[in-house]
Design brief:
The longest helix has 25 residues. By secondary structure, this protein is an alpha/beta fold. It folds into two domains: 117 residues, Nucleotidyltransferase, domain 5; 163 residues, ATPase, nucleotide binding domain (Nucleotidyltransferase, domain 5, 2-Layer Sandwich). The protein has nine helices and 14 strands. The chain has a five-stranded mixed beta sheet with strand order 3-2-1-4-7, sandwiched between helices. Keywords: ATP-binding, Carbohydrate metabolism, Kinase, Metal-binding, Nucleotide-binding, Transferase, Zinc.
Length: 303
């Protein structure tokens, strides 16, 4: 038995995994952001609640492990940022610890138990508040040792003009320190930013999408530009990785007409032609971080 954790800036969720088909969620607790001792104690309490001693724990975290130093980059939870977290937790808990990025865990969940089943190369894309991704090949996470593979949301590659007819697009500043990243336009906040740029209107992503689905002219223009901007970097990612399925998670994945538009645009821009949908809604809708971390932990146990 292993215990997996999905650790976010707001809550820590746990789960018990005995096999790929036996993963049971536990409760959730607030994340101690500024107190490492309290963070460890929260994990210890969740472990104790199971009444069993796991063989290891596996964590899905909204952060990245530096593959050279094994230090965690996790700005939204200061008490674990910069730590060699796996080693520190192994010392505190006396258990083997595996850590993976949350988007990587999402991709692993989709490859193992979701829309990516039966595919050799799966690229999991997140279109949520921002943009993320993870890459699984032959059932193995490319970032098993940490690193940034799958981070298609970052890099100064957004087109300077998009839509039909084309309209100029600013190189928006990104939180990563660069300008013109997919993350600046591809998530919900990016969609809102585009709408404000195009029409000088401040609407929520939900309002923009609702208006688009009712045929409103300005929202339709925004979605046209959005799809044009996002489809090209996603198509490039598919060409480079050879992915044959792209499960999409995050809030925007709930808008299936938007995914259909994006899928159509992406398939028109890639080298390998597919007659079936390629960019699809994810299937692991509940706790993909827990599932992905559990699958990684179970694979580590079997190795």
């Amino acid at each position: 038995m292993i215990i997996s954790f999905d650790i976010g800036g707001t809550a820590i969720k746990g789960g018990i995994a005995r096999s790929e088909t036996d993963i049971v969620p536990l409760g959730r607790r607030p994340t101690p952001k500024d107190d490492f001792a309290a963070f460890v104690e929260t994990l210890r309490d969740i472990i104790a609640e199971t009444g069993e001693r796991p063989s290891r724990i596996a964590l899905s975290i909204a952060g990245v492990v530096d593959p050279d130093t094994q230090r965690l980059i996790c700005a939204n939870i200061p008490c674990i940022h910069g730590r060699t977290l796996a080693a520190d937790l192994e010392t505190e808990l006396g258990l083997p610890v595996l850590i993976a990025n949350d988007a990587d865990c999402f991709a692993m969940a989709e490859a193992g138990l979701g829309a990516g089943r039966g595919h050799r190369i799966v690229f999991g894309a997140i279109l949520g508040t921002g943009v993320g991704g993870g890459l699984v090949a032959d059932g193995r996470l490319v970032n098993e040792a940490g690193g940034f593979a799958g981070e298609w949301g970052h890099g100064p590659i957004i087109a300077s003009a998009a839509g039909n007819p084309p309209v100029a697009i600013p190189a928006y500043a990104c939180g990563c320190g660069q300008k013109g990243c997919v993350d600046t336009v591809g998530g919900a906040r990016g969609l809102e930013r585009l709408h404000q740029t195009l029409h000088n209107l401040d609407l929520s992503s939900e309002e923009i999408i609702a208006q688009w689905q009712h045929g409103e002219e300005k929202a339709t223009r925004t979605i046209d530009v959005y799809v044009d901007l996002v489809a090209s970097p996603l198509a490039l990612t598919i060409n480079i990785t050879g992915a044959t399925i792209v499960p999409v998670g995050g809030g925007l994945s709930n808008v299936e007409p938007l995914l259909a538009e994006l899928d159509h645009a992406v398939r028109a821009r890639i080298l390998r032609k597919f007659e079936r949908p390629l960019v699809v809604r994810s299937e692991c809708r509940i706790e993909p971080g827990l599932i992905g971390a559990a699958l990684l932990g179970l694979k580590a146990e079997a190795a």
